[in-house]
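During the reporting period, our protein records have gained a structure token line. A sample record is set out beneath this paragraph:
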Amino acid sequence: MTIAQDGILWPLRFAATSYVLRVTANAVTEDLTFPSTGSLTTTRNHYMSGDNQADASTDGGQGDLFVMLENTLNSHSQTVGFIIADTTGDGSNQVKITCDVDFTILWTHANTTLDAVGAYWGFDVTGDDASTAQAFTVTNQTQGIWFPNQTRSEDSRDRQPYVGATARSISGLQRTSRLATPKKEREISYRLLDKGKALEEYEAATEPTGSFEKAWVDALSLGRRFRFYEDMTSRSASSYSVYRSRSMADPLDRDELGRRVRWRLDLEMVRADD
């Protein structure tokens, strides 16, 4: 029996409302606009999810960056056959692009401005990417994902906190007043984490943003929403829960069980659905 592995998708944002990507397909070169329809909202969250959700303000943003890039590539006049997917079997996010014709993504061309964020999808962008047998597999893991490659050690599940007070009078009568029921809270822990999944300085070459420290610095500690998946291989519009961190304390520490070479993550979360 395969054990489902969980993980986090943390949000990516853009500094511009649109970008240009120069692409050659079937020997025809064109400048394509990203996104292919509409424009980006610079304060909105986007995710490397592959769940086909459209860009919208729900939960602070929910646009699927796989399909947004796919739609841009398919706006080329010579083809409508581009498909972008996670080529891993475990949901750890490595992009593969296939097409019904040969293609080249011209990252180094002066007209291309999407190179500023090309690393979001794992592209190197220091050189052009040409298909082999009408396919190209990106070398690096996408940004915006923390994939611990192990299951949770502890999980409180969503629990309901209460705002209120209790008091007892001099006569001995007890009174309780419940004033509010805030968003539900949850605590999860991972024990014996590999150092590359914990700190930026130990990240693997093909996972250049794969540490929890990167997710913490770039998103979670800024108060941004993130998605928690209990099974990273099953991603749909309803297969995750949206949270924020509810503590500014560093959630990473050395794990005493790992003889000081492994790490422990204790993440305190609160539901952040709209």
